[in-house]
Write a structure and sequence with these properties.
This protein has six helices and four strands, in the order H-H-E-H-E-H-H-E-H-E. The protein is an alpha/beta fold. It is globular.
Length: about 150
């Protein structure tokens, strides 16, 4: 009975459950957990196949990085040499229920991205000069970029 109620509510929505916030250049905002990384990889691949010149950027919470779909998207991007994709991990060490290292440790996070063939840049997320410098250096790369942004206090 519960499944039927849920399906009927979904049918009444008349729109996809992900939110589109109406900001130019933002294709997807608010996704079920780690689905944004998969969507970003698909957008980057489509752009590459269509020979369109833009970067796709996805923001990933480190709590999300405990899910397999993040790493599936990472493998997919590496296999397809998506040098137009930047994955930014907000490394605040917080998950939805506890500190990330208490639930499923992520360290060494940067080495995990490298193992999938990504170029990794680590920066201080509280230093705007460092953020701007990192982004300026990310354009025109030959590989996908994983940026680990430390935002913990």
């Amino acid at each position: 009975m519960q499944q039927v109620e849920c399906r009927s509510r979904l049918a009444r929505w008349r729109q996809p459950p992900t939110a589109h916030i109406g900001v130019e250049g933002v294709e997807q905002a608010g996704a079920p957990s780690a689905a944004a990384a998969e969507a970003a990889a698909g957008i980057a691949l489509a752009a590459k196949l269509d020979e369109r010149d833009f970067m796709t950027v996805v923001l990933i919470g480190d709590g999300e990085s405990q899910e397999g779909s993040i790493w599936e998207a990472g493998m997919f991007a590496s296999q397809h040499k998506l040098n137009n994709l930047i994955a930014i991990t907000d490394r605040n060490r917080l998950g939805s229920e506890d500190f990330t290292e208490n639930t499923a440790g992520l360290e060494p996070l940067e080495d995990r991205w490298r193992a999938f063939g990504w170029e990794v840049v680590s920066i201080n997320g509280h230093d705007f000069n460092e953020i701007f410098a990192a982004f300026a250096g990310m354009c025109n790369r030959c590989r996908d970029i994983a940026c680990s942004v430390s935002t913990s206090a």
